[in-house]
Amino acid sequence: MVRRATESDIGRIIHLLHQVAMVHHEIRPDLFKPHTTKYSEQQLQALLSDDNTPIFVYDDGEVQGHAFCKVTEVRGDKLLTEVKTLYIDDICVDEKSRGKHVGRKLYEHVCRYARHIGCYNVTLNVWDGNTTAYLFYENMGMQVQKTGMEMIL
Question: How large is the angle between the packed helices 41-48 and 10-27, nearest 10 degrees?
Fold first, then answer.
């Protein structure tokens, strides 16, 4: 049910990206525009062909969710140890499929993939106010790594 995304999935991924954008817009309308997507179809095509930005989809005959990932490596840094990290840029489950463990299956697949390619850790960011996502990731065993702060001027 979870697999790498292909070009034929782009339409459903765009649909899901609209849902993600609206969640972020509702939480932070001062930062996120409504009714848009993070990526265009052309940008998605480029991401799909890059092994450092794997996109996974949950497909039960129709794509019900996606996980956008970025693989990064620290090498030769003066301060940081050399680690390979899989960053989850975005997980989305279609509004109609929530509560059916689609997010859990995507997350678990991403973690298995990260182990398989030799990653030290999996990281992600959750916007303050996105309590549902925060609780989901906490339930998956994730812990706070760092805290971002702001002061609106």
Answer: 110
Please tell me the distance from the alpha carbon of residue 150 to that of residue 16, in angstroms, as a whole number.
28
Q: Per-residue confidence at 74, pLDDT binned at 50, 70, 90?
A: very high
Q: At a CB cut-off of 8 Å and minimum separation 6, what does 84 contact?
A: 71, 72, 73, 117, 118, 119, 120
Per the structure block, which two tokens stand in for 125?
């960011």
Rounded to the nearest angstrom, the gap between the alpha carbon of residue 44 and the centroid of all alpha carbons in its chain is 14
State how far Cα 138 lies from the chain centre.
15
Contact between residue 106 and residue 73 where contact means Cβ atoms under 8 Å apart: no
Residue reference for tokens 């989809």: 57
* Token pair recorded at residue 133: 């996502």
Q: Would you say the pTM of this structure is higher than 0.85?
A: yes
Which stretch of DSSP H or E encloses residue 148?
none
**Greatest alpha-carbon span in the chain:** 48
CA 7 – CA 114 distance, rounded (Å)? 23
Both tokens of residue 15?
């649909």
Sheet holding 55-59, edge to edge: 2-4, 55-59, 63-73, 84-93, 121-124
